[in-house]
Amino acid sequence: MSTTRGTPSPVAVVTGGAGGIGRAVTAALADAGHRVVSVDRTAGADPAAHAELVADLGDPEAVTALFRRIEQEHGLPESLVNNAGIYEARDFLDYTPEDYRRVLDVNVGAAFFATQALARALIAADRPGSVVNIASISGQSGSPDTAYGASKGAVIALTHSLGRSLAPHGIRVNAVSPGLIDTPMAARIPAQRAAEYRARIPLGRFGAAAEVASAVRYLTGADAHYVTASVLDVNGGLH
């Protein structure tokens, strides 16, 4: 896809692109004129993706190599959506060290190192950019799924910190914090707990992945050029 003046369309990278929110974000950014590179540990990106890559985002070295490949094959991205994440409904007392590390490595580490790889390239090229992290209401209010809640709280803190530290380079970093969204990941929430959550949502329903994607599209676009280090709630009023 190219712009009407013949210049290449901007490149956007979406991690976790095979998931429910990832597919919706891919479609929204493609519709906004981006060439979207979807990355996941399994195939299955939205057909709107211009390229689909498989990578283990829990491995920092793999993330660094991934961004080198993306720049070589598709050009320097100007937008990154850190959507890759692991959710497991598990009691705190049942976590093993391996369980804990995997959740933190993917939910926080992938966002940290992917943003670092992109920021280094953008700064070297003296170009601006936008990063959107997918957080969660669990990172704001806590969660019985403790490692997941802790990881999403860390994503929010990372957003505030990177938004400030990268602002002098023209790189904006924001987050979207979804509530209960109707995706395969949400389907793993125990049924009784999901019913209790639904009863507390002022708008009376779970959200749609496309509604999260609309918020991401806004934050990556020109209308949000004065927005950074911010968290946008998409949760139906649930707090």
TrEMBL record:
Entries under SMART domains matching the protein: PKS_KR
Keywords, comma-separated and alphabetical: Oxidoreductase
Matching Pfam families: adh_short_C2 (PF13561)
GO molecular function, one term: oxidoreductase activity, acting on the CH-OH group of donors, NAD or NADP as acceptor
Keyword Oxidoreductase recorded: yes
Keyword NADP found: no
Annotated InterPro entries: KR_dom, NAD(P)-bd_dom_sf, Sc_DH/Rdtase_CS, SDR_fam
Annotated Ketoreductase domain residues: 10-179
Similarity annotation: Belongs to the short-chain dehydrogenases/reductases (SDR) family.
PANTHER family named among the record's database cross-references: 3-OXOACYL-[ACYL-CARRIER-PROTEIN] REDUCTASE, SHORT-CHAIN DEHYDROGENASES/REDUCTASES FAMILY MEMBER
Protein name: SDR family oxidoreductase
